[in-house]
Amino acid sequence: MSIRAPYTWLDKQASLKRFYAQLQKDNEVIQVTVTNHTRDIREVCLWGAQSDKEITADKSFKNTFDKTLETEQNPIDVIFNEASDKYCIINEGADAMTVLTAEGVIDNVIDLNTNSNVDIKGPIKIAYNSNPSHPNYGDIAIACRRADQILILDHSGQVKEIVNTGVEPVDVIFNTYNNRFYVANSKSTYLTMIDQSYQSYQLDGFAIPLNLGFNNSNGDVLVNDFGLKEIHLISESGELKNKINGIETERLSIDFDMDNNSFYAASFTSDEIYVINANSLDIDFKYLGISKPSQLIFESDSKLIRVLSQSDSTLKTLSLNFTIIGSEEIVDFDNFSFDGPSIIYLSSAKSQIQIKGTFQSPTVTVNEEYYEDRQDFQYNPAMVRHVKLVASGEDRINALQIIEKSVTGTEFCKTISLSNSQSPQNFANVSEVFDFDGNLIDGHVTWCFKINPLQQVTFLIYYNQIEMYNLLPEKSRISTGVQMSKGIPVSWLDNPKDEPPNEPTY
Description:
Layout: H1 4-26, E1 28-36, E2 42-47, E3 60-70, E4 75-81, E5 86-91, E6 96-101, E7 106-111, E8 123-128, E9 140-144, E10 149-153, E11 159-164, E12 169-175, E13 180-185, E14 190-194, E15 200-204, E16 209-214, E17 221-225, E18 230-234, E19 240-245, E20 252-257, E21 262-267, E22 272-277, E23 283-287, E24 293-299, E25 304-309, E26 314-318, E27 324-329, E28 335-337, E29 342-347, E30 352-362, E31 364-366, H2 369-379, E32 382-391, E33 399-405, E34 411-417, E35 430-433, E36 440-441, E37 445-451, E38 456-465
Antiparallel strand pairs: 1-31, 1-38, 2-37, 3-30, 4-5, 5-6, 6-7, 8-9, 9-10, 10-11, 12-13, 13-14, 14-15, 16-17, 17-18, 18-19, 20-21, 21-22, 22-23, 24-25, 25-26, 26-27, 28-29, 29-30, 32-35, 32-36, 32-38, 33-34, 33-37
């Protein structure tokens, strides 16, 4: 017996090889690949284009992720560009922009030195045109400190314009009120304003402008002038409306609350957060509860204030009455963004990006060609000759139900056991299912089976297709208003082109 066993296995292999050679000669074949993206066993239903069965129940689920990615040198600032649904991160040490999907996949890395006569740019701040109704929606502006330039890129990353600025631009904002970019130049006594045609203008009257904010209800721009130790409020055209001193201006992080008509300004030097009236520039409130606030963001949707404390590497969440309602430790990360569907943290020192979020993910997917085949089989049924099933992993598909629904709504169910269909190639999870021979795939027949967690199953279906128009009788009744490529009665071909068929022919 031990001598005959190897020959028995080889005989099975040879027989299966001959079988497939003949099968491929006599039949057509399609491939259907089903993937379970969840950690649950899920029921899947294929075919049955005229039934009310979906491929699976609960087509999508929330997928939570937390990734830390290595990126280009010194990631320093980030935006979420709604025009492309991607994050754009500038890397100061690499003169590059990393494009990241909301799911935490690096989509592209763009060299900012391309098409430029300046080799070292030093990108430091980024903003974008966030007006969906504007022709330049999605255009990105990058302040390049060492090149004295603003790079204008479209949302795909292609360079559109290079705008010269003052010396060492260190901040850039997009004013949604008038669709213009404003740039603070730390070694020039003016701001650079860039209009909608990307022409630049000087707004004079400053010493060392460092940080910018804007009032999106009237376009006023708040300017932190470290040289004059003052905060200036200017109109959208650059005219001085008001100013305030008494605030430590060495380094501020500014945001605007339109509902309360207030600017929030966090001072890194004095450990103070100011609530500034947007009209009078009076200080309505001063908060001293956070040490070294390096970044402040006001969330208009949640009405929460987020402040990054560089002193203890924590991200504080504050209510509008400045009560700390949350604190998260983020060691080594020095910038963050809550824009978009995910949360982003940047580590300039470690050249890392951490991204957290949830996104809707399909529970079960099928290859795109399946839907075209299903529609075809709905009108031109397929007679199955053989099915080969290949599954990933070690878990097997044990059974498959064939459910046929009659025109009266009655369902007939047939269960095919796959437990005895294991291929002689037993080192793979392959089943050769001969019990499908003679079964139809049409609009009324559905295949249902249970797929294991995170498993992918591929069906190779060998079949002969029944083309229904070939079954029409030669003397079938004329159908008006219906165009068909085949199935025209042969007798019609004997009539002149512009004359109807003789009455006896229909």
